[in-house]
Amino acid sequence: MADRFSINLVAxxxxxxxMAYPLGALCILTALANDVRTKDTTDVxxxxxxxxTHDPVVAAEAVAKTGSNLVGLSMYxxxxxxxxxxxxxFKRLCPDTIVYAGGPEAGAKAQELLDMGLxxxxxxxxxxxxxxxxxxxxxxQEPHGPGIQTHSTTxxxxxxxLDLSTLASPLLTGTAIPSDYEGVLWEMTRGCPxxxxxxxxxxxxxxxxTYPDERIEAxxxxxxxxxxxxxxxxxxxxxxxxxxxxxxLTLLRDRSPSDMHFTFxxxxxxxxxxxxxxxGQFHCSLQIGLQSxxxxxxxxxxxKFDPELFASRIALLNTHGVVFGLDLIxxxxxxxxxxxxxxxxxxxxxxxxxxxIFLLALLPGTQLAEDAKALxxxxxxxxxxxxxxSPTMKSADIAVALRxxxxxxxxxxxxxxxxxxxxxxxxxxxxxVELLEAFSVYLEECPIEEDEDIFAVQDRFxxxxxxxxxxxxxxxxxxxxxxxxxxxAHLQESGESPVVYLQYDSDLLAQLxxxxxxxxxxxxxxxxxxxxxxxxxxxxxxxxEKMEG
Length: 549
Description:
Helix content: 40-55%
Low-confidence stretches: none
Mean pLDDT: 94
């Protein structure tokens, strides 16, 4: 092996978005550039592709032209298919080039990838492991040791840096230029103490390791200096350590500009009044894994659930005006179509701004994937490993649940219906899931046209449904309430101040937050003609003012 050689790291995001930040590859690049064994003898570059834009065969040709001695692939569930086409194309062009892969998908499918012609697989968090492998290659040795799997390895296991303070920062070293990306994926900790059977983290390091406060503060200053607008905090459970959570939230509240948005993953049960208040004092949103409201189903995947405790902690977020979303999974072991419908009702009852629903994926390397046969879970054998059927949720049930998912995505989440959804249900006496089921049927009869305004679709559907249920006398109040909140959503999304037309005074419509629609309509007379109201923000405060004349 030559004394000095070139390394090309290949990353692939799903699409161009604020999430398309190749953190894993950037961490490896930084480690190689700062390790005493490799920094003076290697030239490391990064090739970053988009799965929906870049042809993997063309990408393989471009990487082949770099003439690299070593090519590293950053593999995840979402880019496995892309790399399945990249690898054979590259191997045909460069059969003698050493190729390795790292990332969750690579670790879970190590032998399969070795059989495709890769030289070694990195298991676990790769900074120290890749530096070890490269130093061995420079010495003319085959890669071997902790975290390295090859054809000759029999007992390879994942390894993790125990002390994160030893890792160089991609941001602070200048390896990652944050302004080159639409958003940044940011780590404050690694590891997860929980053991959810469907998650990669359940097989990762259970010890939660933290980066030094000084590094986090310096990285925040850098993100601010580069005017980064979207920061996704990758900590699996950001609020696990209450004292540290308060410290970090106070730092972000005090230093981050008002137009920098942070996204966190949190555990609802660990929320309290102080942390909820802090989340509400700067520009952020939370994503919370509910997964199901059925305690027995959750217990089967290693999660405990107290519906009253969960709801009370979520109520703190609503009290302090914190934007949050909930996640649900279709088809967990023991889940039925009816229990999934109950979960939709429970989730929407918590009033999340978005409800993200996923079909269960039996991810290789997770406990659930290993137990799939014993649990009689039928699933796709290749990425994305989606559930096809279970003893309690047959394929027909899954199809119904997926239609509900689509209805929820469009009507509730994309349509930003959280503020008026319950009023729409109350006027009909519908459960939340029943309204979504009605919308699902409506979509089959009246598909949404491309680029059609979702607010217009909502208005049309609600009017149709209320007429069918002979509740048209409630429409003036409901449509005014919808118009008001659709206008607010438009302002918050676009920054444009709209004019909305209401048949009730805007302050009066606030009663619908807690008053049944039928009672409101009986109690308050409507205007003969809709009146114009201007919605605008001034000094950070939202105003709805009636336009005179």
